[in-house]
Design goal:
The complex is a heterodimer of chains A (330) and B (307).
Chain A (H helix, E strand, L loop, with lengths): L2 H10 L4 H20 L6 H18 L4 H23 L4 H20 L4 H4 L5 E2 L3 H4 L8 E3 L3 E3 L1 H26 L1 H11 L1 H6 L4 H27 L1 E2 L6 H14 L6 H25 L10 H22 L8 H5 L4
Antiparallel strand pairs in A: 1-4, 2-3
Helix pairs in contact in A: 1-13, 2-8, 2-11, 2-12, 2-13, 3-4, 3-5, 3-11, 4-11, 8-11, 9-11, 12-13, 13-14
Chain B lengths: L8 H10 L13 E12 L2 E12 L3 E5 L6 H8 L7 E6 L2 E2 L5 H6 L2 E3 L12 H8 L8 H4 L6 H17 L15 H14 L4 E5 L7 H16 L3 E5 L3 H7 L2 E6 L2 E6 L1 H6 L1 H8 L10 H18 L1
Parallel strand pairs in B: 3-8, 3-9, 6-7, 7-8
Antiparallel strand pairs in B: 1-2, 1-4, 4-5, 9-10
Helix pairs in contact in B: 4-7, 6-7
The chains are: A mainly alpha (330), B alpha/beta (307).
């Protein structure tokens, strides 16, 4: 077994672009779910809209990179308005149903044959990231120790990604310690009480939906640029469930929760996915139990199992306060 | 003067204002803060509220009583915008409130509490209080990001909140989660939080429900002190001792309608009120069991035809 490769890729996954994309998505979802109590099960649609907004603007219509970024952000805001206007007046669970359906509609539109002229159908779009990588100041790979190495492209997307994470965290931190954030958290506790104190609850929920959607959409850019391609099935519902795992793992309504959650999630997933094939090769795991093609699925089974155990034994996540979570039980 | 030394000025004012008001449903008040006309709320075939006319005297404590299902809480929800009536209109401080959203009702100065207390569990007690203040600059998203724009106001709000916490004897709990308070303390917190809005009128929905008897007296004292501060109080309550103790005026609802009004003593002696609470047949002897059985059968039929 080549432990240096296993440990190398696992360590890389603590800081690489994939982890950053999930962290950004989860930071947005944390605004919705953790702080405001909005059950948004369609966060993947915000990432998809942003990624396709960028890709279609550049690859389909031949417009510059920055316009693509603008189109993606605008798309995320419009999606938030479309989702919010009909549902935010209703009970919380309606939002969950509508968002999960909306995310599927968005994904199916992207892969529909009739729109494939613009979206590339199920193949998606490529060749939209040149504008981004032409700004790359790095040349050549960087190695940290002997285990970890990143090429220039990965390094550039990581740099931008970490800056976006930092900006997002500052935003969330400032917003949530302000009186605005106090109203947001109060809405999570009881909407009617907040209404009775003269706050326009629907407007605040809409603002939260937009803020979280826009923060999440940043993750969509990172994924799209990292892969230099967009594909509709990247933005399926399971993507949203991974984000929920990350938010709960890190601790809902904690500023750093989504980042730490994403780190742990990807470290464990990468480690399992690296260790299992090696262990099968080396004969530590008998092939009647599992062969190499099963290993990938087994990794996700472990994620599901881990989430269940987490919710039972540590519902507050890494950063959360158990006393606070238990107040809900009353 | 000697006889009145123990009576606070708010009580005297309220008594004076209500002295010549006739004891009948829909009676005109000298200086009404709230006037409602023909407010009707139906749930399917059931008319839950049908109030022809009602006036609430400014600066007085008015109790809204009635048996279970009389429509008291529904009427409360209608007045505060939490529910929409099928018809009717009402004015508060002279401005019409029909169709106004609940948060705007609160901003106009009419603040309510809830029968099932709504403490914001995972916010600290002091944050619960701060939330109540209206017109906060930092409650807009972009301005909230720049603390310099709201910290001054936040300090004033916190001072006001701390004063109220001392008055309601919650200052020791300042930093605790509101969810860790006892039932009675939550009622106190909810009332104190409502005062942060600086309302003209406070609507209390069963302020005594589920409160430890040891806290009842202090809660009563707080309600009375609202009147001394010039506020108007309308409250729903089942506890008749409390109603007798603190209210200047009592309005009785039965089956959605206002059936009696008056001072506590006259209302409690009113046969219509006793009928409403105990049922029109409480004397019993005149009605034989066959009649009752027929009524039950008719009701059961009515229920079936509804389906």
């Amino acid at each position: 077994m080549s432990w240096d490769i296993i440990i190398g890729v696992s360590l890389e996954s603590l800081i690489n672009a994939t982890m950053i994309a999930y962290a950004l998505a989860a930071i947005g979802l944390n605004v919705h779910f953790g702080y405001t109590g909005l059950l948004n099960f369609g966060q993947s649609a915000f990432l998809g809209i942003a990624a396709y907004g960028l890709a279609m603007t550049v690859a389909t219509f031949g417009l510059p990179f920055w316009i693509g970024i603008g189109v993606g952000l605008l798309g995320a805001v419009i999606l938030a308005l479309l989702l919010g206007i009909p549902t935010l007046r209703l009970r919380a669970d309606y939002l969950a149903i509508v968002t999960i359906a909306a995310a599927e509609i968005v994904r199916l539109l992207f892969r529909s044959v009739s729109l494939s002229k613009w979206t590339g159908g199920s193949d998606g779009l490529q060749a939209f990231s040149d504008g981004f990588y032409s700004m790359n100041p790095y040349s050549g790979a960087v190695e940290i120790g002997t285990l970890i190495s990143f090429d220039a492209r990965e390094l550039w997307i990581m740099t931008v990604g970490w800056v976006l994470v930092a900006i997002s965290l500052v935003f969330v931190f400032l917003a949530m310690r302000s009186p605005w954030g106090r109203v947001i958290k109060a809405i999570r506790e009881d909407e009617d009480a907040v209404r009775s104190l003269g706050k326009n609850v629907v407007s605040y929920k809409m603002q939260s939906l937009i803020l979280g959607g826009v923060l999440g959409s940043l993750g969509g850019y990172v994924i799209a640029l990292r892969n230099a391609a967009v594909q509709p099935d990247t933005y399926g519902t399971e993507f949203t469930f991974y984000m929920y795992t990350i938010v709960i793992l890190g601790g809902a309504a904690r500023v750093f929760g989504p980042v730490i959650g994403s780190m742990i999630f990807w470290f464990l997933l990468t480690f399992i996915n690296a260790v299992l094939p090696e262990a099968i090769d080396a004969g530590y795991i008998p092939t009647w139990f599992m062969d190499k093609t099963d290993a990938g699925a087994f990794g996700y089974i472990c994620v599901g199992l881990g989430l269940i155990l987490l919710l039972i034994f540590r519902p507050q996540g890494i950063f959360g306060d158990k006393k606070e979570v238990m107040l809900d039980g009353r | 003067m000697a006889a009145d030394t123990n009576v606070p000025p708010g009580v005297l004012k309220a008594r004076e204002a209500l002295k010549d008001v006739p004891h009948e449903p829909g009676a005109k008040k000298k200086d009404p803060i709230l006037v409602a006309d023909k407010v009707v709320r139906r749930f399917g075939g059931l008319t839950a509220v049908q109030v022809d006319h009602i006036e609430i005297q400014r600066g007085a404590i008015t109790a809204l009583i009635g048996p279970n299902g009389a429509g008291k809480t529904t009427f409360f929800n209608l007045l505060t915008g939490f529910d929409k009536p099928n018809e009717g209109n009402w004015t508060f401080n002279g401005s019409p409130l029909g169709g106004v959203a609940p948060h705007q009702v609160a901003r106009k100065g009419m603040v309510r509490t809830f029968q099932l207390t709504k403490a914001l569990s995972r916010l600290s007690v002091i944050d619960n209080m701060r939330l109540g203040a209206t017109g906060q600059k930092g409650e807009s998203f972009w301005r909230g990001l720049v603390p310099a724009l709201w910290q001054g106001q936040e300090k004033e709000i916190t001072e006001r909140a701390d004063e109220l916490l001392v008055r309601f004897k919650l200052d020791a709990k300042r930093e605790d989660f509101a969810g860790s308070l006892s039932g009675g303390q939550r009622k106190l917190l909810e009332m104190a939080r409502a005062l942060m809005v600086q309302p003209d009128m406070v609507m209390l929905d069963e302020p005594m429900a589920g409160v430890n008897p040891a806290l009842t007296q202090s809660l009563l004292g707080h309600v009375k002190s609202l009147r001394e501060d010039g506020m108007t109080v309308l409250f729903v309550e089942h506890d008749m001792d409390m109603v007798r103790d603190i209210s200047d005026w009592v309005i009785v609802m039965g089956q959605g309608q206002v059936i009696a009004e008056g001072t506590p003593d006259t209302v409690m002696a009113d046969p219509r009120v006793i009928d409403a609470y105990l049922g029109a047949h409480h004397d019993g002897t005149a009605h034989d069991s066959a009649e009752v059985a027929a009524e039950v059968a008719a009701e059961a039929e009515g229920g079936k035809s509804d389906e």
